[in-house]
Amino acid sequence: MSGIKLISTGSALPRQEVTNFDLEKKVDTSDEWIATRTGIRSRHYCSGDESHLGLCMAAARQAIQRAGVSPADIGVCLVATLTQDTMTPSAACVLQKELGLAEDTVCFDLNAACAGFVYGLHTAECLLAASPRRYGLVIGCEVLSRITDFTDRSTCVLFGDGAGAVVVEWGADYPSICAVMGSRGNREVLYIPGVNTGSASYIHMDGKEVFRFAVEVLPRCTHEVAEKAGVPLEAIDRFVFHQANQRILDHAVRKLKLDPARCAGNIARTGNTSAASVPILLDELVTTGQLASGQKALCAGFGGGLTWAGCLLQLA
Ligand code: ACO
Q1: Which of 141, 203, 265, 267 has the greatest number of C-beta atoms within 10 Å?
Q2: Are 5 and 315 in contact (CB under 8 A)?
Q3: Where are the annotated segments for ACP-binding (predicted)?
């Protein structure tokens, strides 16, 4: 048995907070519609000199500093994202220099949409097993305001910007995070056109289909992770689900018969930050003492692709 444990977390949100009331001024919508349909009340957007790289750096530096490790001890640096500043160099590659990571650190970006951060944890666990260094840096970062179509009221009210980062440690005697992952190729339900299509790179989404997909896959993935880890749901301290939509989360919590107190979320304040949502919430739970040393968090994400992923992460 070998695996990774969570050592520390960090997060960064842009300065500008955009409430539903602010959106009411430029979109035909209302605070009441957004809050009752999604649970979202405000989100943050990058402005001025803020960038994807800036958010990554702020979250990563916080996590590294809290871990008390040297950048030279990090063997893997992964950024889960679909909104990096440049297609190449990758955000992870730029971070190698900015954070002072060794040149033989494995650095790359990973796109599994809103499931990306958990895909990243699994990838880090595998790569660290083959690394001479014990520590990995996994970041989820999105600047979704850049790819939001503000003429489409059914999508533009959902998304926000932000970054979350974790430092994990690999140990030969640590339990595996028992990741469960899946992909279901679908080009209609949730997609963003690529650079070669000639159309603007905005998020396109069939909300009802995403809803159906999410309420099918989130409870199933949660059960599969618990079974793989051999840990009953009752013994799991926190459930850290992708903050897509409060109604999806409420549905999953009911179906799984979970105590809502163990499923605290932050979507009301952050909106849906895709790959960043799970690590931002993890940081909030750790820094407020809601996830303590030795406790276990079942993390799960689902999104475009369609993709899904879950794992059981223990705080060292
Ligand atoms: N403000 C006011 N009215 C709106 C808005 C808005 N922002 N958006 C849509 N409406 C209107 C529609 O025009 C429609 O009006 P009509 O009946 O006169 O035609 C009415 O509200 C209902 O529209 P629906 O699209 O049927 O709304 P629905 O109840 O399905 O809610 C929503 C839309 C919230 C997107 C829902 O489908 C949903 O929760 N889907 C899940 C998608 C999701 O959470 N995605 C997250 C991103 S993807 C991810 O992270 C995996």
Answers
A1: 141
A2: yes
A3: 243-247
d(CA 143, CA 161): 5
Q: Residue whose CA is closest, atom 51 of ligand 1?
A: 303
Confidence tier at 46 by pLDDT (50, 70, 90): very high
CA-based nearest residue to 246, from 157, 153, 118? 157
Residue 88: DSSP 8-state: S
- Confirm or reject: Cβ of 36 under 6 Å from ligand 1: no
| 8 A C-beta contact, residue 194 and residue 273 | no
Distance of CA 87 to the CA centre of its chain: 20
Strands 161-171, 135-143: pairing kind:
antiparallel
Helix (H, G, I), strand (E, B) or coil at 292: coil
The contacts of residue 81 (CB under 8 Å, 6+ apart) are: 52, 91, 109, 110, 111, 116, 139, 140, 141, 142, 275
What number of other Cβ atoms are within 10 A of residue 140's Cβ?
A: 35
Q: According to the model, what pLDDT value does residue 195 have?
A: 73
Q: Is the CB of 278 under 6 A from ligand 1?
A: no
Helices (H), 130-199: 153-156
b/e map 14-43, b = 16+ CB within 10 Å: beeebebeebbeebebebeebeebbbbbbb
- The pLDDT tens digits for 161-177 are 999 999 999 999 999 99
Among protein residues, the one with the nearest Cα to ligand 1's atom 9 is: 154
d(CA 47, CA 96): 25
E strands in the chain: 3-12, 16-19, 42-45, 74-80, 106-110, 135-143, 161-171, 180-183, 190-191, 204-205, 238-241, 296-303, 307-314
Largest distance between two CA atoms of the chain? 55
Taking residue 219's Cβ as centre, other Cβ atoms within 10 Å add up to 19
